[in-house]
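Protein modeling request. Please complete all fields; requests missing the sequence field cannot be processed.
Requester role: graduate student
Desired output: 3D structure, token encoding
Chains: 1
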Amino acid sequence: AELFDATDCIVSPGFIDMHVHVTGGGGELGPASRVPESKVEDFIINGISTVVGVLGTDCVSRTLENLHTKVRALDKEGISAYMYTGSYRTPPVTLTGSVQRDLVLIEQVIGVGEVAISDHRGSQADIFELARIASDARVGGMVGDKAGIFYAHIGTYKTGLEPLRRLVDETALPITTLVPTHVNIRGDALLSEAADWLKMGGYVDLTANEECAGQLHAWRSANVPLSRVTLSTDAYGSFPVFDSEGKVIAYSYAKPDSILKTVADLYFKYHWTWEQILPLVSTNPATLLKFTKKGSIQVGMDADVLVLRSVDSVQLEPIYVFSRGRLVKKGDWVVRGMFDS
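Delivered output (341 residues):
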């Protein structure tokens, strides 16, 4: 047996990132603005051992068939990979003809999303259309033994979470089926709505960025419940900035290092304990997504394990990463894709 020196290190479950544009996102500035697709090593070096792939604005040049193939490739290369069916638009694009069939018949599909709500890039669907999609996801999840969530991209329009609140108030859908994301990058009003959503018993997914740790700390100080909060990177998704006329005035894309940076900020800057930090990237998403063999380190689990060391008491560096019991990072060595070795 090989021994691994974890002296003065933190041993953690592998991070779960439930929002990654693994085939590349973007396209809001035309064909040349499509973001490149992901590489397995970029997840591993940032401590991510499980990803959920998603389509976004573009579901024409980016397809579910390509997404499905990419998550299968990532899984073979060394990490666990899943996907949502659908995209921003409604009716949702699917692999088999319906959201429900995708969830039941396609092993990697765990929900529908990211459906764009309160965003000019969405299809401006009414409450009845959203209810049908969410109901299909819920029933497909039940029959397929999946999470069956309706994963909602929340945009900058003033309606915010109102469409989701109406689904809870006006239909029989449970609040836990409806999971909003990007709620922390659209301003204080939406962040406040998200806190109320948590108090109602719902889940929210925060997009990890430079401000995220501070927002979480403020929530904890205000006694906002955090047991149903998750963090994701939105990696390889575009970050366009629009002016009041809807024109793109700035353009960039998200990187897969933002969860690791947020975890480091919570620990070094805000002095959270590991018992407070790690559920955000392990047990919370594992519970939401019904990943019953992920999110903790114990007998019978998938053995997704990180060994993290402090760098100058500011950053965290994964020195060892195990995915499903396989060593995928040791020091500077990391597993790579077939054409990146």
